[in-house]
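seq as requested:
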Amino acid sequence: MKQISILGCGWLGLPLAKALVEKKFIVKGSTTSVEKLSTLENGGIQAFLLALDSESVPDILSTFFEGSETLIIAIPPKLRGKNKDYSDANNNSFVKKIANLLPLLEQSSIQHLLFISSTAVYGEANAVVDEHTKPIPVTESGKQLLAIEELLVENTHFKTTILRFGGLIGNDRHPARFLAGKENVDNPEAPINLIHQDDCIGIILKIIERNIWGDTFNAVTPFHPSREQYYTQKALENNLVPPKFNHDKVSEGKTILSDKLEQTLQYSFAIKQL
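struct tokens:
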């Protein structure tokens, strides 16, 4: 029976871990919350209380890696919130936190690594974007995600696959609430680039099943109506106040293609109309 370690059992990592348990994998999962340990254990997941640090390496990390062939890193950068000017981004660097893992990773049984990244690495490209498009991130999180991608891909001790998700939605993260009631919203004609949690999990399972390592994929549902059309419709469907868009400026926005993922993984999106 194969064993997988999931670093970050949050919004995506926890249901992913449960899906892997159902497929008879032994799963080790980490959380930063004491209260959540029982949730993991009740789901058949070996639970680890584990918080990454930019200066030190948690002692329990080697045990977390031990015996696993695959590591999935599903931790958001957390570079927002109280430090909106990113003043402490370097001190609390996501890049440093991941870099600190490498010495232990290189000595571990991990052969394959899946890093959950974001289409934010492409920045503000006003074009159709695929995996050949050069990433030019503009946000701090996008910059750090790209730096981590490069750090992991360059390491020859394991094979890394990068999965760049679009905007994440799900049953508890409904798009109708994203812009409802807001005014003067920019880029009404820009296309949406979203993906449902069910497809996020389905794609990861397919990567593991087909043993696709050492590659990079965009993961966005091939459904790209305009922001105004989509968010207005979703607000009305849920009896919310539709957003009001600003048409005074020309809309800018990229269309993210997932053709490579569909072809390489032979994957068909489960949720086609978001």
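Residues 198 and 270 are 7 Å apart (CA to CA).
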